[in-house]
Amino acid sequence: MESSAHIGVTGLAVMGRNLARNFARHGHPVAVHNRTASRTRALVEEFGHEGTFLPSETAEDFVASLERPRRLVVMVKAGGPTDAVIDEFAPLLEPVDMIIDGGNAHFQDTRRREADLRERGIHFVGTGISGGEEGALHGPSIMPGGSPEAYQALGPLLEDIAAKAEDGSPCCTHIGPDGAGHFVKMVHNGIEYADMQLIAEAYDLLRHVAGYEPAEIAETFRTWNTGRLDSYLIEITAEVLAHRDADTGKPFVDVVADRAEQKGTGRWTVQTALDLGVPVSGIAEAVFARSVSGHADLRDAARALPGPDRSALGGYGGEAFAAHVEQALYASKVVSYAQGWNMISAAGEEYGWDIDLGAVAAIWRGGCIIRAAFLDRIRAAFAADPNLPTLLADKEFAEELGNAQDAWRAVVSTAVAHGVPTPGFSSALAYYDALRADRLPAALTQGQRDFFGAHTYRRTDREGSFHTLWGGARTEHPAD
């Protein structure tokens, strides 16, 4: 078979099929292959008019149809299926060819695969792709890792099909070596969990404290979407809340079971943050909130526990409270994003990745699920100071959070008084207060650790580690 395809896609479920169509629509001849050949034929029959597709039924023919260096995109389930595809195709490739994993792989798996294939001279490019099936077709945010050499050959194609920000720049950049791309995609998904949880809490408060109906809340979100909260998630929230169920005529949100599911990337983010020692309390609370929602038996057993009635404020009180909720939502979102960027920075130090934090914000301005207007301000903040220790230290964001904190605190206290759980808002405020505190009660915690486990402690007035001989004279001496 003649080698003429710029790139190939194997794995033609919805994401893979739409990604292949995206390449073809941009004028790139694309080789297509699927374990079930009928899916390959169906793609060409239905969408062959969109561009040049080179279908293959065998791995050998698929590889032969790719120009050198061969660029082979794998779009199959993460884990074992990905390893199986790599094992099938790697023996057919030659040095400088590349395998691009566009699935939701764990970044440690990507690091392992990249190291293994590097020994054989094959580039492995773990690539985060965000935007869902629509993004894959019309322009996703793309986060490729791997070697700089691989990106030289692959980057122009990815940048061509990526979403474009308002300034026209592609939402794609080389993130860093080995697993950096999939790591950043994982953190993106973790921030997405936090963002969705905060929006859900805002809805809960507007409904059960402000006394708004879903259609009214939809209009509130539409208004918010014209300001600093302008984002894809706010936009679709308004659509969901305005929708009515066709069968019952009830608000759609009232006929959906209140059990949120998850695929695991948020959980990976929290687990990895614990390994890195980075606090991502907003993401963690979002993951736990989904977990709580799914424990139907536990919730049924505890539903009769005493607590305050959810009496709505209504009227002007409701309007004033809604304005406070907007402030709390914005401030809490900034905190969650800040935690995500802190985690990316820590991973860069841990794994030797020189990740441009401003560039990450830039490629999330379009295509991805958490795309939002204020990402351009995050990009600008890190462009002005690449060593910014936390987004909360940026002058403009710090000023905004300072202006929001009275309303933020009022929302959290009102939620407690009305018995409405707000783990996202509350944890974000606690994180904010912890960072700005002169002293934390961790001093007592460390004293306890020294008492029961001789774990030692540091002092504020001299250098070194110390241990107190508890009991008796309680003498203190430097630790050995």
List its traits.
alpha/beta; 10 strands; single chain; 20 helices; three-stranded antiparallel β-sheet; 480 residues; 9% strand
Helical percent range?
55-70%
What's the Cα radius of gyration? 25 Å
How many helices?
Answer: 20
Distance between the termini: 71 Å
Q: What is the succession of H and E elements? A: EHEHEHEHEHEHEHHHHHHHHHHHHHHEEE
Spatial order of strands in the largest sheet: 3-2-1-4-5-6-7
Largest sheet: 7 strands, mixed
The shape is: globular
> Total strand count, please?
10
Integer average pLDDT = 94
- Portion of residues in beta strands equals 5-15%
Q: Which parts are unreliable, with pLDDT below 50 for 5 consecutive residues or more?
A: none
Query: Structural class, judged by helices and strands?
Result: alpha/beta
Task: Characterise this structure.
There is one protein chain. The chain is an alpha/beta fold and 480 residues long. It has helices spanning 14-25, 37-47, 59-64, 80-89, 107-118, 132-138, 148-161, 180-208, 214-224, 232-242, 252-255, 265-276, 281-294, 296-302, 315-351, 357-363, 375-384, 395-418, 423-436, 442-453, and strands at residues 7-10, 30-33, 53-56, 71-74, 98-101, 123-130, 141-144, 457-458, 465-468, 476-478. It is globular and about 75 Å long.
List the helices and strands and how they pair.
Elements: E1 7-10, H1 14-25, E2 30-33, H2 37-47, E3 53-56, H3 59-64, E4 71-74, H4 80-89, E5 98-101, H5 107-118, E6 123-130, H6 132-138, E7 141-144, H7 148-161, H8 180-208, H9 214-224, H10 232-242, H11 252-255, H12 265-276, H13 281-294, H14 296-302, H15 315-351, H16 357-363, H17 375-384, H18 395-418, H19 423-436, H20 442-453, E8 457-458, E9 465-468, E10 476-478
Parallel strand pairs: 1-2, 1-4, 2-3, 4-5, 5-6
Antiparallel strand pairs: 6-7, 8-9, 9-10
Helix pairs in contact: 1-6, 8-12, 8-13, 8-15, 9-10, 12-13, 13-19, 15-18, 15-19, 16-17
